[in-house]
Every structure is written in C-alpha cells, then in structure tokens.
Specification:
ten-stranded mixed β-sheet; binds magnesium ion; 2 domains; Isopropylmalate Dehydrogenase; alpha/beta; globular; binds 3-isopropylmalic acid; single chain; two-stranded antiparallel sheet
C-alpha cells in the first residue's frame, strides 16, 4: 500500500502561482506512476494574496493546515502592491510565522552548477563548473526574531531603530549537528561562518561549534571563517566549500551570493526542517530561494526550476524517495542539456522557453527516466 502524504501548497504572490502550477504536474505524475506514495494536496493563500482576501498574511485556518500536513510547498510572497500594509501584516510575515511556529530551524540551500549552465553564471566557467555545495542557514533565531525589535521616538524627536541578534547554545548546537550529519553524506567538510571579531553571538557561535565538533564531529574537517571573508571566498573560489553552516542573516546573504554561481537565483531550491518529532518525522517546508519577482509576474516567463527542485528536496528529505529525487534532479539537468532556457538563464543558440514549456520539458525527461 502506498503511503498517503498530505501536501499543503501555498503558491503565494507574484510568480509563485505560476511556478507552483508546474510542480502540480510533478505531483500528478508521481500519483500516477508511484506505488510507494500517494500525495493528497490542499491549497491555501499566503502573503499579499491572503492579505487582500482576509486582511492578514496567513489565516489561522491555513496555519492549522501547515501544522497538520506532512510537508508544505511554498511559492513566494511579497511585491510593491503591499508596500504600505502594516508591518505585522506584510506578506513576508506569513513566511516568518510558519518558520517560527513550526520551529523550522534548519534551512538547507544547495547550490549546484549544472554542466549545461557553467557559461550562464557571471563568473568564469572554470570557477563554477562542477560546483556542488550546501549552505545550512539557521532559520528561527538571530536578528530575524530577537527582541527588542522596534522603532521608538526619542525625547528630542529623533527616531531610534533596534534589531537584536541573539543566539543560545542549544540553537547553535542543533544547527551545527545538522551540518555535520549532512556533511557526512557529502564531502565531510564544514565551514562555520560568523563574525567573532565584532559580535558576541559570533564568539559564542564559534565556541559551541568547536564543542559540538568534539562531541559529534568525528571525521568532519572543520574550518572557521569570518562571514565577510566567506562572501569574498565564495566569489573567488566557491569550489573550496562543501557545507557552510551559518546564522540566519549571514545565511540569507551568502545563499543569494551562492545562487549566482548556479547561473541564476531561479535555480536555487531550499528545504526548511524542524527537529524530528515523536514519530521520527520532521516538520518540513520547501521553497525556491528566489522571491515573487513582481516585474515578470503573470507573464509566463518565470523559471520553475528552483520550485521543481524544491519538490525534489521534499521527495528526498520528507518522504525518503531518494531515487525519485535523484531522477528529478537528473531530469532538470537533461532538460538544460537539451537547450531549454528560461529568460534568466538564456544563452546564445539555446531554446528560449516560458514557465510551462520548461516544466513540461523537465517532466518529459522524467518520464523517459522512469519508464
Ligand atoms: C529568503 C528571503 C526571506 C528572508 C524574506 C522574503 C523574508 O530573502 O528566504 O532568503 O530574508 O529570509
Ligand atoms: Mg533571502
């Protein structure tokens, strides 16, 4: 009997619904072909779309579904249309609430340079060709959530804004252990990025990483790197990295930089995982790293690869369907090798396609691999 898995789809705003429509083809495909799994899907609003209808970035009902499902597939949220909505209801609040409430502390952002795209990066081919690295970003702590977080008016009428960067031992230890565990499935090398030269959180981060390495890091080559130097090294020689573990804000920035090694931000998938529950399963959330791209929304131009690859990560990390996940990755690689390109990765003499055509091309390659 196939396992039934409940997927919650939150397409969100901008290009979110367009790229999610492509993932639905893949869900239907596995429902037809696989005897291991059956996906039941439910869809809800998030971000600006939810605000327009309900006046909040995500409803309690949608949050209830998010807590109950086996995995969430997310598109993107935000756009200039919602620039003026109250801060607590801004579209991004949906994303941050899900991350925090489901305690999705481990954000996995793989950056892989597919051979066919080695020329698409702004960096030279030899710098990026064959790149396969993984950024592990702490996702529920740090300056994103630390209190106080406020803008106050001082007596002299001037304003003062505060964000608080805060980390505890436990938070650093659990993300470090995820990094070590995943490094063991790859190149056994971890770079921990912080700024212990200016930040107390950096001092503690480094201490805890060293300690965790003693206890749980057997066989792992560990390096400490200042986050600014890490940004520079990523551009200089990205292939020196296997796994980078870092905090919420540095991870946000370093993963955007890493995305460009792959040719486009439209290529980067992500998984956000919680701690294993009593049933051994982790809460899980999958989303492309790119945003809602309002400038091209509704035009059928968006690159669906990051979202399709995020679904591939769901197969791998939530459902144990590793062979199937490998096939999805291979299908993406093959469609690229066939010359299919959306605008963001277009190169001379390649075949310029839109969102749907790219989705269908990848699905066609998957069908060839599965039969
Ligand atoms: C990301 C995004 C989000 C973040 C935004 C949309 C809140 O940039 O997932 O990288 O900063 O975490
Ligand atoms: Mg970001």
């Amino acid at each position: 009997m196939a396992d039934t898995q409940n997927l919650l789809l939150l397409p969100g705003d901008g290009i979110g619904p367009e790229v999610m429509a492509e993932v639905e083809r893949f869900i239907a495909f596995f429902n037809k072909k696989s005897n291991k799994v059956k996906f039941d899907t439910d869809t809800d609003l998030a971000g600006g779309a939810a605000y327009d209808k309900h006046g909040v970035a995500i409803t309690e009902e949608a949050m209830g579904k998010a807590h109950a499902c086996s995995a969430i597939l997310f598109g993107a949220v935000g756009g200039p249309k919602w620039d003026k909505v109250p801060y607590e209801h801004r579209p991004e609040a949906a994303l941050l609430r899900i991350r925090k409430e489901l305690d999705l502390f481990a954000n996995l952002r793989p950056a892989i340079c597919y051979p066919a795209l080695a020329e698409a990066s702004t960096l030279r081919r030899e710098v990026v060709e064959g790149l396969d690295m993984l950024i592990i970003r702490e996702l529920t702590g740090g300056v994103y959530f630390g209190e106080p977080k406020e803008i106050v008016t001082l007596e002299n009428g001037e304003k003062r804004a505060v964000d608080t960067q805060v980390y505890t031992t436990h938070e650093i230890e659990r993300i470090t252990r995820v990094a070590f565990d995943l490094a063991r499935t790859r190149g056994n090398k971890v770079h921990s990025a912080e700024k212990n030269n200016v930040m107390k959180t950096g001092v503690l981060w480094k201490e805890v990483v060293i300690d965790t390495h003693k206890k749980h890091g057997q066989g792992i080559e560990l390096h400490h790197i200042l986050a600014d130097n890490c940004a520079m090294q990523l551009i200089r020689n990205p292939k020196q990295f296997d796994v980078i573990v870092t905090d919420n804000l540095f991870g946000d920035i370093l993963s955007d930089a890493a995305a460009m090694m792959t040719g486009s931000l439209g290529m980067l998938p992500s998984a956000s995982l919680g701690a294993p529950g009593n049933d051994g399963k982790r809460k899980a959330f999958y989303e492309p790293v790119h945003g809602s791209a309002p400038d091209i929304a509704g035009q059928g131009k968006a690159n669906p690869i990051a979202t399709i690859a995020s679904f591939g990560m769901a197969l791998r990390y939530s459902f144990g369907l590793v062979a199937e996940a490998d096939m999805v990755d291979k299908a993406i690689s093959n469609a690229l090798a066939q010359g299919y390109r959306t605008g963001d990765i277009m190169q001379p003499n390649m075949r310029s396609v839109g969102t749907t055509e790219m989705g269908k091309a990848i699905l066609g390659e998957l069908e060839r691999l599965v039969v």
